[in-house]
Amino acid sequence: MTDKYQQHTLSVLATLRSVIPRRSDVTYDEALRIAELQANKLLAAHAISEGSTPTELISELPKITIAYTGALVAGASYWDTTRRTWVILLSRADSWQRQRFTLAHEYKHIIDHGRSGDLYRGDRRASAATQAERVADYFAACVLMPRRALKRVWGNGMQRTDALAAYFQVSERAIGVRLRQTGLVDDWTRCTRADEPGG
Length: 199
Known about the structure:
The protein has 10 helices and 3 strands.
């Protein structure tokens, strides 16, 4: 990417972190809304409104390094004090769709760094750690399958999970979850491939 692009992205992380309220009583529902707002700001900063979200909007940010491992890990992120960069670790064994999702998921953990205690307090249904993982998944879904873009293509007639997954470059499982999150379907099996039951 160009130097101009690099300069433009210098404050992206700070901008996304600034969305987090300065209070410690954020509810789980608020945390989900914050995650979607952050995803929308990330997409808007790069003028992305349709099609597949390029992973470069995260991978080419300053102080972000992508590393691959052969280990069977779902993903991880950490601050490398020696190189002074955030490292997002992806598994070579995962499909490229899974790697895209994991990249966005781990970036949300980087955004939340230092504020997780304010955002995720846990409740009787889920621990704070579980809430953090679920919100990171939600953020990844919002980045890769933005609500407006998904509703636009759905309204234009693209309603089969295989077609939607190909369009957004995600797994059919991910698109199925996102269809339910956005209220487009109650049961995503009704929009599967035509040769499958319910398709």
